[in-house]
Automatic annotation (TrEMBL):
Pfam families in alphabetical order: LacI, Peripla_BP_3
Gene3D superfamilies: 3.40.50.2300, lambda repressor-like DNA-binding domains
Transcription regulation is among the record's keywords: yes
A GO term, aspect molecular function: DNA-binding transcription factor activity
UniProt organism field: Youngiibacter fragilis 232.1
PANTHER family, sorted: HTH-TYPE TRANSCRIPTIONAL REGULATOR EBGR, LACI-RELATED TRANSCRIPTIONAL REPRESSOR
Protein's UniProt name: LacI family transcriptional regulator
InterPro entries named in the record: HTH_LacI, LacI/GalR-like_sensor, Lambda_DNA-bd_dom_sf, Peripla_BP_I
Length: 329
């Protein structure tokens, strides 16, 4: 079994730095690159902290996913987070109960806490907190009443767009999705927010280069076909997730165009199959496994500490440079 010393040696940092990163010490001052490196090695070694190796027998948490089974298969991003969370619970001896918004109060009272995966509106949060005050939101920052585990969307978009910009692209299209809370209010998409911010800052924003549907393969296919109908199209596109990128690949191929010689593509999430696409997809890696694991750890820590303040854990991302982007000279 791997130890903190093993991780520290491979990462080239001190044992105390590894320990503080793995325990989400917010006072630790290290670069995102260093934190990302430590998390990658810990994941590679399948490391579990000594504290978490202790039995948690008898604890029970509810997992709520805003995606149903059909949506999970269409966009497996949240599926991977849920599976990672459930595996973490299994490894720690914590019982998992899958719940939905129709969960009754008797069931909720028997739970030590709730892990909510996905996006939730204010009324949803209010209703959840009536069921159980120990809640961790995953991939969504609710408010100061609840803990959360999120990714750094600004860093993500700066990495993706900065990479395209550095390769000479100035017309960079955006193909993304629209999402809605269970109460039907629209979710503010931070990918598009920081895309627009980057493009405006560099004076290259064109509203006509932005397309929206749902975050699915079909959505990416339909929107790319629409974009390709325009004679004056961008030289590169950012896709809201890798499922959409796969759909875009199909549309581009059907149009007789080549990736990356005719159009450069960059995705988001780095799903397991993305490196096997032809050409292999350049994308932003989101550590979905660690999002799920960290959410479970944070929930159990909160249950055990009865602390009065809330925590937000930010998981770093990484640019996976592959073959779907070329220089625009």
């Amino acid at each position: 079994m791997a130890t903190i010393k093993d991780i520290a040696e491979k990462a080239g940092v001190s044992i105390s730095t590894v320990s503080r990163v793995l325990n989400f010490d917010e006072s630790l001052k290290v670069t995102a690159k260093t934190k990302r490196r430590i998390l990658e090695i810990a994941e590679e070694f399948d490391y579990v902290t000594v504290r978490d190796r202790k039995s948690r027998s008898g604890q029970k948490i509810g997992i709520l996913n805003w995606y149903d089974s059909e949506k999970e298969l269409g966009d497996p991003y949240y599926l991977y987070i849920r599976l990672a969370a459930e595996k973490r619970c299994h490894d720690l001896g914590v019982e998992v109960v899958r719940i939905d918004f129709d969960c009754d109060e008797d069931t909720a009272r028997k739970l030590d806490g709730i892990l909510a995966i996905g996006k939730y509106g204010r009324s949803d949060i209010d209703n959840l907190m009536k069921l159980n005050e120990e809640i961790v939101f995953t991939d969504f920052s609710a408010d100061n009443r609840c803990d959360s585990v999120v990714i750094d969307f600004k860093e993500s978009m700066d990495l993706a767009l900065g990479y395209l910009y550095g390769r000479g692209h100035r017309r960079i299209g955006y193909i993304g999705g629209r999402e809605f809370f269970p109460d039907r209010d629209e979710v503010s998409d931070l990918r598009f927010k920081f895309y627009k911010e980057f493009m405006l800052m560099n004076d290259i924003y064109h509203e006509s280069d932005c397309y929206f549907a749902d975050f699915s393969l079909k959505g990416g296919y339909r929107l790319m076909k629409e974009a390709l109908e325009k004679p004056d199209r961008p030289t590169a596109f950012f896709l809201g997730n890798d499922s959409m990128a796969l759909g875009a690949y199909k549309a581009i191929s059907e149009a007789g165009l080549d990736i990356p010689n005719d159009i450069s593509i960059i995705g988001f999430n780095d799903l397991p199959g993305s490196k096997y696409m032809v050409p292999s997809l350049t994308t932003i890696r989101v550590y979905q496994d660690y999002l799920g694991q960290a959410a479970v750890d944070l929930l159990l820590e909160s249950i055990g500490s009865n602390r009065e303040f809330r925590k937000k854990v930010v998981i770093p991302v990484k640019l996976m440079e592959r073959d779907s982007v070329s220089d625009n000279i």
